[in-house]
Amino acid sequence: MEEMHHGLRKSIEKFVTLKDEEWEEIRFAWKSFSFHKNEPVTSMGEVEKYFYYIDNGLLRGYFEKNGQEYNMGFSYNGEFSGVYDSLIFQKPSDWNVEALEDTVGLKLHHNQLVELQERFPVIKEWLFKFNQQVMFGLGIFIRSLLADSAEEKFERLMTQSPHIIQIVPQKHLASYLGMTPETFSRMRKKWAT
């Protein structure tokens, strides 16, 4: 558990610096969690109650339409996850989060997140900077979805996150990039040569 808290602190401190006395209080609000492979974390229609820090494992965000799944993103070691808009606004989620493999980490309840922001200005600053990163990444993702060719999308993924191909199943990466598994396989073979 101490290692998980250490990883959480490192992830938070990518954005802000925590004083030891702040950290000692903040860390106790985070509780451990574990999900088994293919276990739902949050389902469409539920209100997200937790903000998750993944110590080890893999979660995916996705929605379904006309019987087809569309992957929106993946979170793994050292990252945060959950249905963030549902968490912040406490409204029902319009997408799902599930574990793609056994996943463990720490979770922070919405009420405690609100309380920590009120008590510690550094947490408010952290969330502000975290939100900036999320919005920046979302802008890049939307632009790529709308304007990039399949090859450009694949090349961006392999340039920015080459390790992801070892973690996430090919069918989910293909969906995330908005292409068929066959197109993804062709791109992967071409990239390897």
From TrEMBL:
CDD domains: CAP_ED (cd00038). Pfam families: cNMP_binding. InterPro entries: cNMP-bd_dom (IPR000595), cNMP-bd_dom_sf (IPR018490), RmlC-like_jellyroll (IPR014710). Residues 14-116 form the Cyclic nucleotide-binding domain. PROSITE patterns: CNMP_BINDING_3 (PS50042). SUPFAM superfamilies: cAMP-binding domain-like. This is Cyclic nucleotide-binding domain-containing protein.
